[in-house]
Amino acid sequence: MTEKEGAKKHHEKEETVEATESGIKAGDIVLADFEGWIQDSNELFDTTSESLAKEHDMFNEKMVYGPQPLIVGKGRLFPGLDESILKAEIGKDYEIVISPDKGAGPRDPKLVELHPLREFVKQEIEPRVGLEVTVKNKPAIITAVTAGRVRLDFNNRLAGRTLKYKYKVVEKPSKPVDVVKLLLKMAYGTADGFEIEHHGKDFKIKLSDSCKYDQRWMLAKYRLVTDLREVVGADTISFVEEYEKPKKEEAENKAPEAKAEKAMEPKKEKAEKKEAPEAKKDEEPRKEKAPEELSEEERKA
Fold this sequence. Notes:
single chain, alpha+beta, Chitinase A, domain 3, Thrombin, subunit H, five-stranded antiparallel beta sheet, extended
């Protein structure tokens, strides 16, 4: 083996060790901070930083900013980002450039269509360039508006673009309960109010009160089941719904005004009794008449 070949082998061995020592493998869930940019236009399209989102006029008040959970190595991320995170060290900052073939893919001219303007008029939509719309259950971006026609691009808006990512893996949770909480956050938006138990590969999740009457939970539940099987290898998944009967004390506490009125009743009665003698004092005493002073009608009575 030549010195050059030996150096090459040693370099390959170092890369393998680095990938292994990163501690991140396909199917893991990690918490990461990141920024996504379109390289040629320097346009920010995604971020976990609230201040950066506000600076670039893309702040979403419904989003909870900060490190986000990502499932790695399962096709959930752009291939270029996926490959990089699998080799990343926790706590280290990275900046990578992703070509279209490792990003959102190339643009497909067949996904650009012309639609009659009247379609939008019927839906009371005023078409304008850059507006995101949904047509036949497919998202699209309006790229041109001409006389009587609207051009729609059904390509991913990042298709054909070179992307730049800045990211840092903040944490890789290892406890099953912590992993399930992150999967809940990904599927439903929050893990607040849920109680999680597990015995080996069997998981039991007691639902929060808020999700019992939430239609979004029905869709989130099926996504969660898929993620639990892929990420933690769950065999059995049980969802528990509990509806407790209100306790007597709680029912009484719900009517404090009725209690107050009842407590005031004896006081009202005492007040009425006290007022009665005073009323008698105000009445003038009745004067008795002598027999000779009585009229004929009074005598008959």
